Amino acid sequence: MDHCFPRDLAAERQVMDDLKHFCCLNKNCPKHGVRGEENIRIRARYGPDNTRLLYCLVCKKKFSERRGTIFFDSRLPQTTVVSIIEHVVEGNGMRKTGRLLKVDSDTVSRYTKLAGRHAEKLHDELVAFSPKHPRSSIRREVGLRAKKAGTVRRGESG
Q1: How far apart are CA 31 and CA 16, in angstroms?
Q2: Per-domain boundaries in the chain
Q3: CA 47 to chain centre
Q4: Is the CB of residue 115 less than 8 Å from the CB of residue 74?
Q5: Rounded distance, CA 19 to CA 10, Å?
Q6: Which fold would CATH assign to domain 69-130?
Q7: Which of 42, 64, 82, 115: CA 20 to 30 A from 133?
Q8: 76 CB-contact burial (10 Å; exposed 0-12 / middle 13-18 / buried 19+)
Q9: d(Cα 98, Cα 3) in Å, to the nearest integer?
Q10: Main-chain phi, psi angles of 11, to 5 degrees
Q11: pTM above 0.70, yes or no
């Protein structure tokens, strides 16, 4: 029985590392949007995919691990949703993707819009935390000096 303990401990550590990617989604919580604070725990599992119901230790609110993603409240299997996005990314149209995956073209459109909104939010979050380029201020300075001097660069009309 003791030989199982290290394996269980490793699995628990892996789950905790996975939870560092989640944050509280309650806008009134002091830890809202802050990742890696270890305030998120697994409360239960539900559904055919064993989706985790997460719990914030600070505000005591529960939420699905899929909330805020295109998989939240989805009636389709996750593999089908991923296939829809892959087909659209490869350049297939809505009707063609629907025909190939045997889903309605309106369903393809809906998931494409959801994925676009999710990608936009993720982009905004990542850009907010990205470091500034060390040369960006130098480029701006050179551009301002060129405008003051009245010089016209190649490709610009003057």
Answers
A1: 17
A2: 7-67, 69-130
A3: 22
A4: no
A5: 14
A6: Arc Repressor Mutant, subunit A (1.10.10)
A7: 115
A8: middle
A9: 50
A10: -65, -40
A11: no
